[in-house]
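Predict the 3D structure for this chain.
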Amino acid sequence: MPSARLPADYSRLIAEISARMVKVSNEELDVEILHALRQALQPLGADRGGLLEVTENSPDVRLSHIWYAEGIQPVSAHINLAEIFPWSY
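Done. Predicted structure below.
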């Protein structure tokens, strides 16, 4: 599978997202993370992407935040990804 070609202004986009994250309040953090995932992944043609949560002293890997493109069926937030993708732990 060929690698995705980054849009010309992708580095600027990531810098803008990083600058926003530094300034976001705790109350707005979850919404901003989802917005950032969409902004970062959509230009790459991704249909989903997220952040994994690994907790110390637990063998589970959970999705803490996930973005889906329109029409993509969401997976359960309670699924243990380590059972499906052992490399994720």
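The chain is about 35% helix and 15% strand.
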